[in-house]
Amino acid sequence: MRECNDLVLKEVCGGTTISGTVLNGMVNLIKILYEAGKSTGSSIRRIIDGNLCPLR
Question: CB-based burial of residue 33 (10 Å sphere; 0-12 exposed, 13-18 middle, 19+ buried)?
Fold first, then answer.
């Protein structure tokens, strides 16, 4: 293994990482969008089929 001096170490660039918090936020956003789409689709289907609950 080769030893590095201070000049070489200053030029080292790290990769990108996705933290658990960011990943959890993305998963929660996907869940919210999925549920909203499911509710909207269900509402549209009930309106088209005429299966609405009466208001009175």
Answer: exposed
Minimal CA–CA distance to 26: which of 15, 37, 34?
34
User: In Å, how far are 1, 7, 50, 52 from 46, measured between CA atoms?
Assistant: 68, 68, 6, 6
Q: pLDDT tens for residues 15-48? A: 778 889 999 999 999 999 999 999 999 999 999 9
Q: For residues 20 and 28, what is the distance between their CA atoms, to the nearest angstrom?
A: 12
Q: Alpha-carbon torsion 29, 32, 35, 38, what sign? A: negative
C-alpha angle 35/37/40, rounded to 5°?
110
pTM of the model: 0.60
